[in-house]
Every structure is written in C-alpha cells, then in structure tokens.
Amino acid sequence: MVTKKHDEIIKAESKDLDFFYADGTQALKKVNLPVYENKITALIGPSGCGKSTFLRSFNRMHDLYTGNRYDGEIVLHPDNTNVLDAKVDPIEVRMRISMVFQKPNPFPKSIYENVAYGLRVRGENNERTLDDKVEEALKGASLWDEVKDRLQDLAFNLSGGQQQRLCIARALATEPEIMLFDEPTSALDPIATVNIEELMSGLKERLSILIVTHNMQQAARISDYTAYMYLGELIEHDATDTIFTNPSKKETEDYITGKFG
Amino acid sequence: MNQNQKTSDSKDLDVIRSLIKKHKRNDFIFAGVGMLVIASLTITLLILFLDLVLDGYPRFTLDFFSNFPSRKALQAGILSAWIGSALVLLVTFVVAVPLGVAAGVYLEEYAKKNWISDLIEINVSNLAGVPSIIYGLLALGLFVYSFGLGQSILTAGLTLALLMLPIVIVATRESIRAIPVHIREAAFAVGATKWQVVLNHVLPYSYGGILTGVIIGMARAIGETAPVITIGALTFIAFLPPAPISTEIPFLNFDWLEAAFTVLPIQMFNWISRPQHAFHVNAAATGAVIILLTAAMNGFAIRLRYKIRKKIKW
After folding, report:
1. Where are the domains of chain B?
2. Does B312 sit within 8 Å of A61, measured CB to CB?
3. What ipTM was predicted for this assembly?
C-alpha cells in the first residue's frame, strides 16, 4: 500500500511501539514506522498526538525522567540493535542518533565549545582534530562564513536562526547516523526557517532525518515521506506526494485539507 | 440614533475610567505601605549601626586591630579575636563547601525522587532553622568529647560548618534547579553521561548562585556566638595560634587547628559584661567591625551574582 521506490533502505524502524508516561497515560499505541536512509521522514498531526513523544523515543530522552516506559522496539539497521532494549545504554544510542530541539538551546559557552562538546564527550582532546571537525560541522550547518572570525564569542550573541544552525552543527559534529528534529523552526522567523529547511535538504545526503513539524507546508516542502499521527496512533504513512495529493484515509485528508486540526 | 450610540459609549468609558482609577489607588496604597515598611527596617538598622560607630569611634585605631585583649581598656584590641574568626571561618569554608555542594548535586541530579528524598529535603530545610545553640551542644558532645578534638579552632570550624551546611545545600539545589531543562537535555542529547553533565554544565552554570549562598552562610557564621561559647572558646586570650604557614618544608603547618582561640562576637560579649564604661566602647567598636564585615560579604555576594547573571541568560 505504501508507495515507495524499490531501492529505499530502511535505516531504523519502530515495531509495535507503545509508550507510557509515568502517570500511566499511554502516549503511543502500536506505532510501526520506518525511517529510510538518506531520506527525510516527517511526522505531522495535531498537538498532543504523540509525534514528539515518538521522536524522543529514538534517542531515549524519556529515560531522563523516572517512570516512563516503552514497549515494543525501535530497530536500528544495519546492526539490528533495538535501541529501546534495557541492555543498550541510552548514551550509546545518543552517540549514534543526535537531536535538534524546538527552541535553539546552545550552551552558555563559546560558539567553538558548543560545536566541540559532542566530540569532547567522546574523549577527543586533540586541538587540531577538534578545529577541523568544528569547522567541518559549521560548514555543514552553513554557519561557518558568519562565525569564522568570532568562534570564541558567546553563542548567545548569535541571532535565533544562527543559534539553531549552531545547534545543528553541534548535532552534526559527531557524525550521527540519524538526526532528529523536534519542530526546529517553530521559534524562528520565515527567513531563518527557509535557511534551516534548505540545510535539512542538503543534510539528507549524509544521514537520515526524522522531523516533527506542525507546519504541514513544511512537511510538504522538505520531506520524502510523511506520517500522520492522531491520539498516539499512526494513521497513515506514505510518500509525501501521495499523502498530500491522494491520502488513503479519510482522517488524513480531513487534517491535511484543514477540516480538522 | 447616532447621537444615542455616542452617549452610551461615553457612559461605558466613564465606568471603565473610574474603575481604573480605583484600581490605581490600590496600587498607590500598596506602594506606600511597602515603602514605609522598607524604610523603617533600613532606618532601624542604620540607627543601630550609627550608634555602634559613634560609641566605638574613639577605638578605631590601628592598635585596636593589632593588640591583644588587656585589663586596661585603652590598650585592649581584637587581634586574637579577628585572627581566630578568620581561621575558624577558613575551616568552616573548607569543610562546608565541598560537602554542601556535593550533597546538593547528589540530591538534585542523582537521588531518586521518592519519600526518602522528600524526608531529607524537609530535614535539610529544618536544619537551616534550628537554633544555633543546639549545634553547639551537638558539637560539644560529638566533636569535643566523643572525637576528642578539644576546644579548638577545628571544633569551632566544624561546628559552624554544620550550621552553614543547610544554607549551602539549599543554595546549590536552587541554583541547579534554575538551569533550564532544554539546556540539560541538549547536553544529554549529544551523549554526555550524568557526571559529564554535572561537571561541564550544571556546576559551571550554577556556581554563581552557589557562591552567593556560601558567602551569605559565612556572613551568618561570622556573627555566631552561642555555639562557639558552648564548645568552650576562651573569652580572654593573649596569644595567637601557631602560624599556618611556615618557612620550612612543607611550608604548611596544621598545629593551629588544635589551638585554643576566641572569635569576634565572643570578644564583644566579654567586653559588654565588664562594668567599666571604657570596655563598652571596645565592644561597640567590635560590633561595628562585625557588621561591616557582614555587610561587605553580603555586598560582595550581590555583586558577584549580578556579574555572573549578566553573562548567563536563559
């Protein structure tokens, strides 16, 4: 039923994923969703539908708070690691899957140290390697030209859009396999939003992207696949063109045409 | 018709305007009362301080700081007292800061949130309010008799450290809590462990608040009299503890920890209880010194907090 080309490789997939918050509310119900390699997969749906909860399961962010519980699997290929397995260290997962948040959240440190932090955490102390990787990551996030002369400035002195690109550079520096974006442009102005969208389209050459957005136009513009979620369930998942022009479910059509949401 | 509309509109406007006027009057009244309260507090403190300064004024000489206490009021000074206070505070600082910060970090970052941590939290807050003489009694039993530390600078420093500990713990926890969740999550998201997050983020971003708490705690400790009397500080002491720095290797000397001592508030207390008026002048001068020290420490804490807050904005 899902229209996809034959040559798509699955990078990760959730299998019957349930998620329960500490207070017992079930935020995800049997979600099955693949994330294709070098593609952008967008999650859309009304507020509270569980799309952010789903995204944050991929790097085990829920583990930071006690009482949260997962059921089911998120399998990471090609090594078939179930990242939700209690035996798999969440730190290891976060070293492979990085994340960009809704609000730009640079550390109150220099631009350089922000980008270098992920590498330092991995024990990289060689200044030349760090210099090279920081430059590469900043270039990858199209920020290098704007900051190359003031790498030691505090990150807070950058504009909102620049801060978000800095956060992308920080997530990029460690060469992750998958990058998660949690509504990365919702706090930004239209011009900064366009920058980030172009950036993401370029990034998918190097990694796989899963993005949560409540801006349907954004999903239509940048993603290859789109999944529509409602009340913790995955309603429909298909190639973005199909979802937006010819959805197979009535609920999806209602949401996309604005009858609901 | 049109005319009618207008009059009814302006009537509504009148109602709104009189309402705003009424509400603004409340503003004005509250601001006035607040100002009165603040003014009366500040003025009372100022009068007290001025009174001390005027009484003690004749004794503000270099000799006063460099003389030992004496039977002759005019030759008596606070040398042994201020050095004693400084050394006791040094011990307090060295003991209370690492313990308090570590406890605060543990409670905030590592401890599971359950009824035990709630119990500890209530206890820590309670400790901050326990009368200081209780600490003195505890120290007398524990440090002086059980541990055999004697009536020494070490005992006094440990006692005041106990007194200061809850202040440091509470300050640490509060400044850690002020770090926004999204910064913390950002650090975890790149693969940092808890310890890396604490070391690279939590402590660097909260040390301004922690330091403020430490200084305020020290300012409290410097004026404490009851616990230090309880453990048996001397009221008249005409010698100094052994110097902490020596000219021989290893250049540090810890004999002073075991030395007998006195501190500023005890010296003041001692002079007040003398019948001769000349000693009361000395007491007033000592009081002024203590208040100045406390004010200087608090002022430094406020300045520090202001400076650090300017650098880190969430």
Report:
1. 60-311
2. no
3. 0.92
